Amino acid sequence: AQYYAGISRFKLKQFEAALPHLHTASERSPTIKSNGYYYAGICYLQTGAHERAIEKFSYVQDHAESD
């Protein structure tokens, strides 16, 4: 539910509001961690937190199971 709440906020372009949901979901479920971090990275880019975005994208690049 946390993941979908984050995605819903993301789609509404409520990037700051999406972040806590995406982080919670990613930390609780290893199966969606890469997806959650990917969307969190985009949220960070949209809010100007470029270093945090790079951290999330680096994780996704190193750990994602699909291209």
What is the count of helical runs?
Answer: 4
Largest sheet: none
Q: Summarize model confidence as the mean pLDDT.
A: 95
Class computed from helices, strands and strand pairing: mainly alpha
- Name the beta content range: under 5%
Order of helices and strands: HHHH
What would the principal axes of the Cα set say about the shape? globular
* Helicity, as a percent range: over 70%
- Determine Rg (CA atoms, Å): 11 Å
Q: What is the number of E strands?
A: 0
Amino-to-carboxy terminus distance: 25 Å
Uncertain runs: none
Structure overview:
The chain is 78% helix and 0% strand. With 67 residues, it is mainly α. Helix 1 packs antiparallel against helix 2. It is globular. The model has no long low-confidence stretch (mean pLDDT 95).
In short:
The chain has 67 residues and is an all-alpha fold. Helix content is 78%, strand content 0%.
Features:
67 residues, mainly alpha, 4 helices, globular
What is the strand and helix layout of this fold?
Elements: H1 2-11, H2 15-28, H3 33-46, H4 50-63
Helix pairs in contact: 1-2, 2-3, 3-4
